[in-house]
Amino acid sequence: MSIQLQCDNIEGMPKRVDHRERRDLIAGALMRVAAEHGLEAVSLRHVAAEAGVTSGMVQHYFRSKDEMMVFALSVVREHGAARVAAAVAALGDDPSPRTLLRTMLAELLPLDPARSADGRVALAFLAYTAVRPTVAAALHQDTAAMLAFVADQIRSAQVTGAADRRVEPEPAAAGLLAAMEGLGVYVLGGHYSAQTALTALDAQLDLIFGPAG
Amino acid sequence: MSIQLQCDNIEGMPKRVDHRERRDLIAGALMRVAAEHGLEAVSLRHVAAEAGVTSGMVQHYFRSKDEMMVFALSVVREHGAARVAAAVAALGDDPSPRTLLRTMLAELLPLDPARSADGRVALAFLAYTAVRPTVAAALHQDTAAMLAFVADQIRSAQVTGAADRRVEPEPAAAGLLAAMEGLGVYVLGGHYSAQTALTALDAQLDLIFGPAG
DNA sequence: CGTTTTACATTACGACTGCAATGCAACGGC
DNA sequence: GCCGTTGCATTGCAGTCGTAATGTAAAACG
Known about the structure:
Keywords (chains A, B): DNA-binding, Repressor, Transcription, Transcription regulation
Oligomer: homodimer
Pfam family, one (chains A, B): TetR_C_6
Radius of gyration of chain A: 20 Å
DNA-binding region (chains A, B): 43-62
InterPro entries (chains A, B): BetI_C (IPR039538), Homeodomain-like_sf (IPR009057), HTH-type_TetR-like_transc_reg (IPR050109), HTH_TetR (IPR001647), Tet_transcr_reg_TetR-rel_C_sf (IPR036271)
Mean pLDDT of chain A: 91
Strand content of chain A: under 5%
Shape of chain A: elongated
CATH class of the domain at 69-209 in chain A: Mainly Alpha
Domain HTH tetR-type (chains A, B): 20-80
Order of helices and strands of chain A: HHHHHHHHH
CATH superfamily of the domain at 69-209 in chain A: Tetracycline Repressor, domain 2
CATH architecture of the domain at 69-209 in chain A: Orthogonal Bundle
CATH topology of the domain at 69-209 in chain A: Tetracycline Repressor, domain 2
Largest interface: A-B, 54 and 54 residues
Low-confidence stretches of chain A: 1-14
C-alpha cells in the first residue's frame, strides 16, 4: 500500500499554484459581473476578462460553467457568513438576544454599496436556484441554521422576559428571517430606502421583544 | 380638423387581429418558459416555440426582446393584482383589516403550483430589475401602493383596537410586506414549506393586531 | 536528464442568440 | 380592381455562447 503524503492540499493538487486562490479570484470576478449586469451576463469569457485572465485559464480551473457557478454560490454564502461572524464578534461578550439579532440581520441588509453588490449577487442566485433545485441544498442548510438560531434567541429572551407578551419562537423567527430577506430584496430593487428598511427591522424586533429593548 | 374614430383600439392598430391578445399569448409563453427554466432561458425562438408560433410573429409584435420583457413584466404585475382583487372580492363586505390583509398577502404567496409559477417569474423579474433600474418604476409603484394600503389597514385597526398594544403603522406595514415577500422567496427556494410560511404570516399578523384576531 | 504532470494560452466548432431583410397572402380603402 | 397596409413566415447575418482539442513552457519527479 502506498501512503499519500499530502502536506496542505486535500485533493490531487497541482505543482505550484494554490487552486483555491485562483478559484476565489475567478469567483470574485464572477460576482462583480453578476452584481453589475446580472447572472445572465455571466459567461466564461466575460468573467475571464473581468478577472484579467484568459478564458482558457477559467476553463482550467472549472471543468464547466455550472461547476463555476456552484463554486461562486458557495463563495457568496461564505461571504455572508463571514460578514455576520465579524459583526457579531465586534459586539463583545454577552449581547442581549435582541441586540445580537439586530446586529446579524442588519449586517445582511444591503445598506452600503459593498453589501448591495453582494445582495444583488445573492438575489440573482436566489432566482437561479429557484429553477435549479439541485444546487439549492446548501442554501437550505444556511436558512435552516439561521432559523434555528433566531428561534433560540427569541426563546431565550422569552424565559427572562415578561410573560404577558409571549410569542411562539419558531413562527416568529421564520417571520423575522423572512422580513429581513424581503427588506433586502426591496432595498435592492429600490422600493425601500435603507432608512425604511432599518426602521422596519427595528419595528419588527419591537413586536417580538417588546418596545425599547 | 380630422376626428379619429377609434372603436376599441387605442393606437394605430392593424386590420383584423387584436394586438393585445397576441401579445398576451406571447407573454404567457414567456412566463411559462421563465417559470420553468429561468429568465435567462427566455429567447425569441424559445418563447415562440412555447407559444406555438413562429419567431417571426413574435418579432412582429415586439420590436425588440427588451420590449417583450417589459410587456411581460407588466402582465406579471396585472396577474398579481387580479389575483388579489379576486381574493378580496370573494371576501364579502366589510372584512376586518386583519382578515383583509391576511387574505391579500396569503394570495400573493406561492402556495400552489399556479402561484408558484407566477412567483418564480416574479422572482426572476425581481433579480432582473435589480440590475436594470430603468424598468423597475412600475414595480416601485406597486410596492408603494401596497405599502400605503397595508399601513392604512393597520391604522384603521388601531383606532378601534386596544390602546395598550400600539404600533407605528408605517414601519409595521413595511415589515409585514417585506415578510410576505421574504416568505414567498423562501417558499419558492424550497427553504420554507407552505405551512411554515402561512404559520409565520399568521404569527406576524398576531404581533401587529394582537393574538386571535 | 528525461519524462510526466501542471498551468496556462490559443484556436476551432457547433449551437444559439437578437435582429434585419425579404417574401407573400389577404384584407381595407379608394 | 388596384394598391397599400397588415399579418406572418422564412432566411441570413454577425456575434456570443460553452466546450473540446491542441500547443507550449516550466516545474516536479524518478
